[in-house]
Design brief:
CATH architecture of chain A: 3-Layer(aba) Sandwich
Largest interface: A-B, 48 and 48 residues
Largest sheet of chain A: 5 strands, parallel
CATH superfamily of chain A: P-loop containing nucleotide triphosphate hydrolases
Oligomer: homodimer
Distance between the termini of chain A: 48 Å
Strand content of chain A: 5-15%
Number of helices of chain A: 9
Number of strands of chain A: 5
Number of domains of chain A: 1
Order of helices and strands of chain A: HHEHEHHEHEHHEH
Shape of chain A: globular
Helix content of chain A: 40-55%
Chain lengths: 212, 212
């Protein structure tokens, strides 16, 4: 009996030489990985929308994970500061990790100001020029007027920046470079959170990452 | 009709203030995250076992992802060299990323020599002392005699190290610090790949990460 059991197991399995391929993985998991890259000013609504979207997807049973300041700046990137070099490295690492999540069959949501076009474009390239075939990189511009962001100012950061207590604050004394060809533009000043989430779901469905 | 549709959607959803909690996530995904940290000499069998385990889990529909030299050294950690400082940072970043995967409801498999006890212990601490409650960190010692590893030598690295062409090679002129309390010891010199995979599956089941 012991031997039979061993034989049965052995004939059920053919070990691969290397990795299970991405397409085999996605098929077995009935999942398709992608990265949704939210970008926009501080207090524009990126995290609120990403949180709400994550909740909807996870409750549908879709593996989805949000990378944000809380779990990145306190962990992986806690050895980075706010110099130009460190800011670029911050975004690069986030892009690499998002790509790993997407490769695993998860929908990665990144929620960072990511103000510089070159940094975001690098992350796009990492995804789209991946050796094992491109991984969807969907840039979502959370386009909220700075006046609205500044009025919200939930953490008092704009106030501090205006008072000169915060240097290099995006939109005040550091530029925000808006995406030129984002896959999606959300306008939280005139759209509800639900509308924004629905637009993200439509985009994901259109790209085959979820069922519509 | 349009309004009803909107109303229905709205009443179906209560937006959280913050993240979906880990327990809510795991319940909704019917998944439990954990990190299986493989450690052992070069050519001990870490990657072969991790690959085979990944294949079994993914084919069962379990989200499982392997972090290894191919997808880490060429991506996230491509700006790290082999100085003592960079080696420690290499393992720290891998530990942080594995923790994110485990937090997402995925079973993370890490497949690195990770020769230093202090580096592995740091990764354990990152998992076990996570703010949102501990995440299982399961250290798997792939315990293969160096004579066997050196005879296999699939990449010719031991040969180069013996010839003095590779400096700081683990087991030759750099120490391998074996785990003192690993959750599992595998002996690939006397166990088949299937036996090793089965032992990992038993461990995961015993810790509630998968169904037995």
């Amino acid at each position: 009996m012991g031997n039979e059991h061993t034989v049965n197991k052995a004939t059920n399995v053919t070990w691969h030489d290397g990795n299970i391929s991405r397409s085999e993985r996605f098929k077995a998991l009935n999942a398709t990985g992608a990265t949704l890259w939210f970008t926009g000013l501080s207090a524009s609504g990126k995290s609120t929308i990403a949180c709400a979207l994550e909740q909807v997807l996870v409750n549908r049973g879709v593996h989805c994970y949000r990378l944000d300041g809380d779990n990145i700046r306190m962990g992986l990137n806690k050895n980075l500061g706010f110099s130009a070099e460190d800011r670029a490295e911050n975004i690069r690492r986030i892009g690499e990790v998002a790509k790993l999540f997407a490769d695993s069959g998860c929908i990665a949501l990144t929620s960072f100001i990511s103000p510089y076009r070159a940094d975001r474009d690098l992350c796009r390239t990492l995804h789209e020029q991946d050796q094992a075939g491109g991984i969807p990189f969907l840039e979502v511009f959370v386009d909220c007027p700075i006046e609205v962001c500044e009025e919200r100012d939930p953490k008092g950061l704009y106030k501090k920046a205006r008072a000169g207590q915060l240097k290099g604050f995006t939109g005040i004394d550091d530029p925000y470079e808006a995406p030129t060809k984002p896959e999606l533009v959300l306008k939280p000043a005139t759209m509800s959170v639900q509308d924004c989430v629905d637009a993200c779901l439509e985009l994901l469905a259109a790209r085959g990452a979820i069922r519509s």
